[in-house]
Write a structure and sequence with these properties.
Elements (H helix, E strand, L loop, with lengths): L2 E5 L3 H13 L3 E5 L2 H10 L4 E5 L7 H8 L7 E5 L4 H9 L4 E4 L4 H31 L7 H13 L6 E4 L6 H10 L8 E5 L8 H6 E2 L11 E2 L1 H4 L4 E5 L6 H13 L1 E3 L6 E3 L3 E6 L3 H6 L5 H7 L2 E4 L10 H16 L5 E2 L1 H9 L5 H15 L3 E2 L1 H7 L5
Parallel strand pairs: 1-2, 1-3, 3-4, 4-5, 6-13, 6-14, 7-10, 10-13, 15-16
Antiparallel strand pairs: 8-9, 11-12
Helix pairs in contact: 2-3, 13-15, 14-16
Length: 386
């Protein structure tokens, strides 16, 4: 049940608002002045605060400003001496809404309902953000990972292009996301492109967009990923699989910060940080003629090599704990316990699929085992299926 605090020095107004809101199934507290209202707000959590502007002692605007120092609860200001200037001033100073006295019943309930909806949306957004942060969290305290963290800390705040190398499943995408989150571009888009998953005949349309009618299935204009990433970061994953034609166009964007859509003539200016990743040896690809050397040098201002799981076995117990908590949490189950022998065996397995393979094995164990995972469980469910 949403909880509302009414702050008003007129008993009649407090009683009237209480009756209206309680009839609509809200839980209501009230305070006779600003000091009492602030104290209640510090001691309790509210979904909405309704506050009179003209009160003895501290007025409503001061209450609003003090509330903002310790709470992000939406505040609806109410006043019997209202003017447009008063309402504008209250909104500018952070009020969610403004209602004049005597309040119109429908207007009041709509304002409260919208404020409660805002609180729910913010709460849901925080939960989703936390889940995303957990999903893309880099886990590990080993020496190789400490070196990665140090490099991310130095490189992220810059606009330098980064080429991330490493085996499949080692966590190259996590490093790319960490670089974006640590940059001044963190509030702008992070656009990921899997160059290996897009057919060569479509990669240019995907990256640079196309104009309507530029080819048979181009029934409308489309912005490409470089445009969508404007002011943010584009992550070109598996760039070693990109066609030479697309490589030439990417090189032009890096040189000139301009692109032209497929079938178009207009040059479009883009401001994009480029992070690329590959599991291939691009030097060998250059020798074989399948990767442009000039593009390699443009991309590799900073080189980051992500260690394989075999190179950071000391992190395996932490990764087991992280993945098991994440997986059983999504299942709504109790935490999974691993015996020391089970962890020891998991640390010794070859892990050719790296961290991705380890996560899959932990998920398998979480599904097939009870709360305790033993060495026998690992032998039965992990090793034979590898």
């Amino acid at each position: 049940m949403p909880r509302i605090l009414i702050i008003d020095d007129e008993r009649g107004i407090r009683n009237t608002l209480r009756e209206i809101l309680e009839y609509e199934k809200y839980s209501v507290d009230d305070a006779a002045n600003g000091v009492e209202g602030l104290e209640r707000a510090r001691q309790n959590e509210y979904d909405v605060v309704m506050c009179d502007i003209k009160m003895s002692g501290i007025d409503g605007i001061e209450v609003l400003q003090q509330l903002q120092q310790f709470s992000d609860v939406p505040v609806i200001m109410i006043s019997g001496h209202g003017t447009i200037d008063t309402a504008v001033d209250a909104i500018k100073k952070g009020a969610y809404d403004y209602i004049s006295k005597p309040p119109d019943l429908n207007r009041l309930l709509v304002a409260v309902r919208n404020a409660v909806d805002k609180v729910n949306l913010v709460s849901q957004a925080k939960v989703l953000k936390k889940k995303l942060e957990q999903k893309f969290q880099i886990v590990g305290t080993s020496e190789p990972m400490s070196a990665i963290y140090d490099m991310i800390g130095k490189v992220a705040p810059t606009n330098a292009r980064v080429l991330i190398t490493g085996e499949n499943g080692s966590g190259k995408e996590l490093v790319a996301r960490a670089l974006h989150q640590g940059s001044p571009r963190s509030t702008a888009p992070f656009i990921e492109v899997n160059c290996a998953a897009i057919p060569s005949e479509l990669i240019e349309s995907e990256l640079f967009g196309h104009e309507k009618g530029s080819f048979t299935s181009a029934i409308k204009q489309r912005k490409g990923d470089f445009e969508l990433a404007h002011n943010g970061t584009i992550f070109l994953d598996e760039i070693g699989d990109m066609s030479l034609s697309a490589q030439a166009k990417v090189l032009r964007v890096l040189q000139e910060n301009k692109l032209t859509r497929v079938g178009g003539e207009k040059e479009i200016v883009v401001d994009v940080r480029v992070i690329a990743a590959t599991n291939k040896d691009l030097r060998k690809e250059i020798e074989n003629g399948s990767f442009r050397e000039d593009l390699y040098h443009r991309l590799s201002v900073i080189l980051i090599k992500v260690p394989s799981l075999a190179e950071r076995r000391a992190d395996i117990p932490l990764l087991i704990e992280h993945f098991s908590n994440e997986i059983v949490g999504s299942m709504g189950r109790a935490p999974l316990q691993f015996s020391e022998d089970a962890i020891s065996i998991l640390q010794e397995l070859p892990w050719t699929g790296n961290v991705r393979e380890l996560r899959n094995v932990i998920e398998r164990l979480a599904i097939l085992c009870d709360r305790q995972v033993t060495a026998e469980d690992v032998d039965k469910y992990a090793s034979p299926l590898r």
